[in-house]
Please model this.
Amino acid sequence: MCKNWTSQDMPSQHGRTIVVTGTGGLGFEDALALARAGGDVILAGRDPRKGSEAIAGIRQSVPHASVSFEPVDLADLASVAAFGQRLRESRDRIDTLINNAGVMTPPQRKATTDGFELQFGTNYLGHFALTAHLLSLLRRGHDPRVVTLSSIAVRRNAAIDFDDLQAERAYKPMPVYAQSKLACLMFALELQRRSDEAGWGLTSIAAHPGVSRTDLLHNAPGRHSAQGLLRSVLWFLFQPAAQGALPTLFAATSPDARGGRYYGPNRLSETRGHPSEAAIPADALELHVARRLWDVSEKLAGVDFGAAAATPLRTGLDGPSVPAEA
Model:
């Protein structure tokens, strides 16, 4: 691993099709760097206006960037399924999927369209479903990678509470956020194990950005909340979003990144710095919990990874290969 790896060390992404969720903050920085490296980037988010602004911002820096916006609301499983369907009809493969978008610590419990707690449903379950819907395209990718974002919040206050998975009995913003990000980490590790067992050919990696200057704390708790004020007044404690994106970009592109690993910043207890292997909390290594979470998640999201992996593909006479419709 390059000691102080930056986006300048990223290999060329020419010929690779890359999906990034989240149009601001880390997602924007991921898409910008990947477009600059020559990738064909699909930036996915729920707000078309913000999506258009992000595409314009990328093209301002990279005039000939191959970048497009696709609407998807990760808090709405029908929207996730529709997004997957559109890509299966228009693309012959996906080479990299970056499960990045998220919400953080809304002060009051909120629910997704499908009735799941908002953080669990958006940060984790929406991405779990998205990966399943894109699995057939990923299996046709060149060195296909799935990178799923976790958080240093999983180091404490994090556990999978199967007895109250949707925080209906007790809602505390940070522990519920930490649970969603622990689920993301466990998903990334379990996806690698299942890919190895079933021969899906995927490289699944987890990453976290340390403590970075994004709008998560402004968007969810609000600018005038304790967390939002901390983010505004003590901005210098948060590394720039472009720096926070480096562990994700390393996981998504570096030949030194390994499946089933976890990457984050290398300094000040993984809060800032350059990409390095991160410590995996013991809770994330509980295999029986990971298997139970996977089974529960398939039921909640209405997806079946085994069936998705076996989806037959048909070759169009005038276009790329796409999955056969059921």
